Amino acid sequence: MGLIPSGSQDPYALRRAANGIMRMLLEMGWHLDLDQVVSFGLGGLPKTAFAKGATPEAVSRRIQDFLRDRLDYFLRESGQPYDVVAATLAAAANDPVDARARGAALAAIRGEADLARLVAGYKRAANILKGVTEVVPPPVDGSMAGAQPVEAALHAAAMEARAAVDLAIRRVDYPAAVAAFLKLRAPIDDFFDGVMVM
Q: Is 9 helix (H, G, I), strand (E, B) or coil?
């Protein structure tokens, strides 16, 4: 029908229904992939059910965006800061319960000095890599032959952090993932202090 709620217009109470879905999922702690649910629901409809010119893919995107807006609202209403919600939903918005857990872990460290310094190191690295078109970096020699000690230390710390973060995410332990990630702050700082990068 093409009637997505906007502003105060919600003639079919779709916003209320979506709010009910989000509230139920979050309060019960039920993990559900919203993209899969939307795709499944639309997959059973005949093409004649869609507005003229609308494709199932376009309708799916609009519904998913609408549900993400409702999730955004619920996360902000629960006290998560706007920037934390935006970062969380940019990374993972399909499962509302998972998104809430990720946001809570990020919000818990939001004001820490280590996070600010880690972000500064990340920005320095990102600026150095501006204009690099190669998507997959070449393999790194694990022995780090000829490398300065701070380079080898950063490589070792990055490999350790990657393993710890991956394990924590598989266990849905986002505070542990954040803690493992924050351990990179000192090796990154040491690298930029000890190596002239051009």
A: strand
